[in-house]
Amino acid sequence: MRKYKEGSKKEKKDRIKWRGHEIVRIEAFSDAVFAFAVTLLIVSLEVPKNVTELLNSMKGFIPFGICFALLFQIWYAQNIFFRRFGVHDIYSVVLNAILIFFVLMYVYPLKFLFTGWLIGGGITYDDTKPADLIHIFYIYSGGFMCIYLIFTLLYLHVLRIRDELVLTAAEIFETKTSMYQNLIIAGVGLLSVIISSFGVAYLGWAAFIYILIGPSISIMHSRRNKIYKRIHGEKTAKEIPVPVEENI
User: Fold this and answer.
1) Residue among 61, 36, 60, 67 at smallest CA distance from 140
2) pTM higher than 0.90
3) What separation in angstroms does the CA of 70 have from each of 2, 110, 156, 197, 227?
4) Distance between alpha carbon 207 and the CA centroid of its chain, in Å?
5) Which of 45, 58, 150, 225 would you call most buried, defined as having the most Cβ atoms within 10 angstroms of its Cβ?
6) What percent of the chain has pLDDT over 70?
7) Which pairs from 221-227 meet CB under 8 Å and 24+ separation?
8) Tell me: the pLDDT tens digits for 201-231?
């Protein structure tokens, strides 16, 4: 079975010591599900018969690229979680199963929105009732919110079993930081759902609200980094045995 190389650049930069270096079955299954989800995003399985069909197919790669990037971000977040902690108890397995379920549910709304808005792609909103447009945002933003809420619960679970994992104070601090980050992202999804409920006129704001993710995460990390340096100084995670932290 393939193993991750210990001491990689990513691991050395991470404040949490990687405890999961070997791919377990739940991760292999998750990778297969993510691969299937990407397959569902493919523009077309048919080879174009002429230049016109080829050019039309190429237009679909723009929304495909955006959707692929979003799915890859989710996969990467899951990968980092298992590399950090290597947990595969029943609670984390169940949460991971729910996560990949929402990923599959998230695929078609994702493709529908970006294909319809960026290139049309045969998807039109002319005959769509206003209430249906709101439901589309409910599905997309709701799925987005649930995915990152599950990540929040996974990190919360790690904090509950921190004694079993022998987490240091710095690692506990970074675990909480990751939990807050995912909670903020899930909160933005919830805000989008709430704004959508006000009516079709507010759907633009429901989409625009996702821009807040970047600044919110940056502010949170800036604040947490200052606290980390004030508490731990230049010490590494392995050198700090006493769990001490200030609230964000």
Assistant:
1) 67
2) no
3) 26, 9, 23, 24, 30
4) 17
5) 150
6) 74
7) 221/177, 221/181, 223/248, 224/173, 224/177, 224/180, 224/248, 227/173
8) 888 898 889 999 999 999 999 999 888 888 7
